[in-house]
Design goal:
The chain is mainly α. It has one domain. It contains two helices and no strands. The longest helix is centred in the first third of the chain and has 22 residues. It starts with a helix and ends with a helix.
Amino acid sequence: MIEMIINKIIGILLILFGLFMVLKFPQPSEYQPKGFSLLGILVGIISLGVGVYLLFS
């Protein structure tokens, strides 16, 4: 029972982190190299997927 609750909390946190990375990650023109924005979006999508899996499993 506790494991399930912990998995749900971790899933919610990963979803929030993924949404931040996909939607609010700094653009290349701000202060980072151009390739970092693609990497940030990729990490965000992966963490969103893992978070959704943990939330609904």
